[in-house]
Write a structure and sequence with these properties.
156 residues, 42% helix, four-stranded antiparallel sheet, three-stranded antiparallel sheet, 5 helices, elongated, alpha+beta
């Protein structure tokens, strides 16, 4: 059971569920990708260098490759955990946005108070299936909820 499901009232039914597009995970995991690039450079230098195994340079490059790979893996797994904890839910009563891993943040907009929904989708978003989505309510002229890189935006 997802955390958003625990926030539903009696008689409230989930109509559609989404989250950010997977490309958002890749963009947020840029430091992990940088660490993996360091790993690749170190491995290439290890292959080019004399693989005698006993030199200080060989040992240093081996440790750099191992440590940078491990750091990249930890950073990527943390970002993937944050990404998988997101939940964008439409119910028969409201639109609900939940994020956070240990500390949860939930916001909702009642369907009755929604005045407008703005969808911004660039050409790459149209090709890959994501868009930025903004909900405007009657209470405010400014956006109440922003959904950045929302997956399946037209269905949402």
């Amino acid at each position: 059971m997802r955390y958003a499901d625990t926030l539903l009232a009696d008689g409230e039914v989930v109509i559609f569920r989404s989250r950010q597009h997977a490309l958002a995970l890749v963009l947020e995991a840029r430091y992990a990708m940088l660490a993996w690039a360091v790993t690749i450079v170190a491995v290439v230098l290890l292959l080019v260098a004399n693989p005698s195994g006993g030199s200080a340079l060989f040992n240093a490059l081996s440790w750099i490759a191992l440590i940078s790979f491990a750091i990249g893996l930890v950073l990527f797994l943390l970002q993937a955990w944050r990404w998988s904890a997101q939940d964008y839910v439409i119910t028969n009563r409201r639109v609900l946005k939940v994020d956070g891993v240990l500390n949860k943040h939930a916001g909702d907009s009642s369907l009755e108070k929604i005045n407008d929904a703005i969808l911004d989708q660039n050409i790459l978003g149209r090709l890959l299936g994501y868009a930025d989505f903004r909900i405007l309510t009657a209470a405010e002229d400014s956006s109440i909820d922003d959904y950045h890189m929302l997956a399946h935006p037209t269905e949402f």
